[in-house]
UniProtKB/TrEMBL annotation, chain A:
It comes from Methylobacterium trifolii. Its main location: membrane. The lineage of its organism: Bacteria, Pseudomonadati, Pseudomonadota, Alphaproteobacteria, Hyphomicrobiales. The keyword NADP does not apply. It is found in: Cell membrane. This is ABC transporter permease protein. InterPro entries: ABC_BtuC-like, ABC_transptr_permease_BtuC. The keyword NAD does not apply. The chain crosses the membrane at residues 75-95, 102-121, 127-148, 205-226, 246-275, 287-305, 317-337. Pfam families: FecCD. Keywords: Cell membrane, Membrane, Transmembrane, Transmembrane helix, Transport. It is a multi-pass membrane protein.
TrEMBL record, chain B:
It holds the Pfam family ABC_tran. It comes from Methylobacterium trifolii. This is Petrobactin import ATP-binding protein FpuD. Belongs to the ABC transporter superfamily. GO terms for molecular function: ATP binding. Keywords: ATP-binding, Nucleotide-binding. The gene is fpuD. It comes from the Bacteria. Residues 3-235 form the ABC transporter domain.
Amino acid sequence: MRRSRAAVWGIGLGGAALTAACLLLAIAAGVSIGEMPIPMETIFGTLTNRLGLTTLRLPRIQEAIIWDYRLSRSLVAAVCGAGLALCGAILQALLRNPLAEPYVLGISAGASTGAVGIMLLGLGSGAVSLSAGAFAGALVAFAFVVFLSSGRQTADRTILAGVAASQLFNALTSYIVSTSANAEQARNVMFWLLGSFAGVRWPDLALSASVVTACFLVCIWHARALDAFTFGEDAARSLGIAVQRIRIVLLVITALMTATLVSMVGTIGFVGLVIPHAARFVVGHGHIRLLPTCALVGALFMVLADIVSRVAVAPQSLPVGVVTALVGVPFFSIILYRARRST
Amino acid sequence: MTLAARNVRWAAGRTVIVDGVTVAVRPGQTLGLIGPNGSGKSSLIRLLAGLRLPVAGEVVLDDTPIGRFGRRDLARRVAVLEQHALTEAHVTVLDVVSLGRTPHRSALSLWTDNDDRIVSDALSQVGLENRRDQYWHTLSGGERQRVQLARALAQTPSCLILDEPTNHLDIQHQIEILRLVAGLPLTTIIAIHDLNLAVRFCDTIAVLSGGRLVTSGEPMEVLTEALIADVFGVEAHISTSGLHGRLHIQFAM
């Protein structure tokens, strides 16, 4: 039995609305939970106050914590989750590799080398130059992986190239840190590398949200072309897809998103791996539905991961990369296991 | 629609794979490309399909070089069926056949009733209308090729190019696919290994060896014992079949 198109769209939009509602609740929970628990009504009161809708009298400190720390932090977490999940979905489609994502392919490692280089070698300063350095690093890592895995492009070769890239760029990062940082800097860099939303503020949200939104729109524009890659590049070409141009555009987009996010919150692995696979279970393979789903679910996942990272060993907080890896690695193992059975 | 290669040449690095080949197929007819492994059949197929650009010579569609058509424009006229389509994606039969509509749709256009009708027609032409929700990885080799054929038909092409589409199939499914293809009112170019199947299903045959065209013409004229010995290096005995009245080629083993 086949459902009508209207019914399919109805179910899809209903699901999207539900996920979006969950995301809003998760963000609210993320703002509420912390060293100082803040009740929901204070949170909404602060929001309406700041947006100029109300003039409620609220505890000053709580209002400041909500607005200056937790809300921006939760929103950046959402944007990061959306962006990293998108990167994974795009890379998996383009490289036709179920294990592809920025972290596994060493793109994140390249970006962190670039960012650390800027940070410690003092080449410029500020969020934008940090992102630019990360972008350069991500592109170099990409070029390295594409070069190593060129020719007969099999899943194994791409992943091996990614392993080599990760090793190389992590080594370079360690080299830069150990030769040019003092103990305090080294500690900060190492913590940042594992992924943390602790330092993010509103300007970070502005930058990351605009980059991820723009990239998302470009990806949606190419959603149908990504579907055509299902049976490889020649098949896509024979369906009228400009394979070379789309590959370059989307790889640069992925590098740009990865670089922006890594330079802000460090390397957070496995989100790009887990989310697209989970999303495919729900909405199938078509990218016009898959990409928005990835963005929404990725955002939700990361906001929750951020909450877990703060409450798991409270009052201390875990690097969020630790949380995503603890979820991601078992998932990665399942995919590997299934791939072993199907060949 | 007439599709022709004029003196095309293609090289991978310094190795010349296709060396000045001229072939043509008339509207509605089927041209078979035969030749031993490494004779340049697949590469010629890729040149004809516009998937590779020749370093010399040109491929023309109704006398217009295919480079003049936009990619999408070309994909609406010429559909390609590969030897062995592979994917790890969890896609259904319907998903795959729907891909055939790609060149007819812009980036954001919605799926129309017309798209729906064309996809359904394509599925019923290959006899898979009841399998549309089945997953690709659960299909047999023969079914996969039928799905890919339906995908090609959903492109509503006037020309179909097939690269050894029956390579991985048993004899029953080989004949099934070739019958389906031969029954279509399309201009068809097919690279094919089995000489008897080539004779049975092709109007004209072009013989390749070492990247060059040896000869071309009607199967009756082209396929001789001398040619088979020369090109394939095997001794053959050719007779007229009492079963279908066409050539029957037997090999000395």
